[in-house]
Amino acid sequence: MEYARYAVRVETREARGIVPTPRTMPTVDLLPIDLPVYRAELLYRFSMPFSAVVLALLAIPLSFVNPRAGRSANMLLAILVYLIYNNLVTISQGWVASGKVSFAFGVLAVHLFMLALLPLMFYHRIAVRPFARLSR
């Protein structure tokens, strides 16, 4: 068989029409919609700048290195803190999407919990006696 012309028609997104999902919508368009799935996406978008600030503050006590101790312990602790923080944000996003918790609680709970760790970590780095020796 011989063809004089061969072409395949590719349908563009504009021709199909883009179905707006919460993930593809602009933040301004998400604000007035009061559905749990849209609120969960809004929670995720608000959590990213908050978590950047909180993690930057947590990096201060985690960056302390005792010259007589190993240098990698704080790096492992910092990675663990980030993983726990990121998972808590994802869990709260899922809870808001399913309607288990309110939007305000989902936004505040995780960040306030991590901010509550901040004074404890600063105290641990500044204190003359570590936490382990307080029991004696």
Detailed description of the structure:
This protein has 136 residues and is mainly α. The chain has one domain (21-135). The chain is built from five helices and no strands. α3 (36-62) packs antiparallel against α4, α3 (36-62) runs parallel beside α5 and α4 packs antiparallel against α5 (103-126). It is elongated, with a radius of gyration of 24 Å. The chain starts with 12 loop residues before the first helix and ends in a 10-residue tail after the last helix. The mean pLDDT is 84.
Instruction: Supply the number of structural domains.
Output: 1
Rounded Rg: 24 Å
Beginning-to-end CA distance, first to last residue: 91 Å
Count of alpha/pi helices: 5
Label this structure with key terms:
mainly alpha; 5 helices; 136 residues; single chain
Sum this structure up briefly.
The protein has five helices and no strands. It is 63% helix and 0% strand.
Would you spell out the secondary-structure blueprint of this structure?
Layout: H1 13-16, H2 27-30, H3 36-62, H4 72-98, H5 103-126
Helix pairs in contact: 3-4, 3-5, 4-5
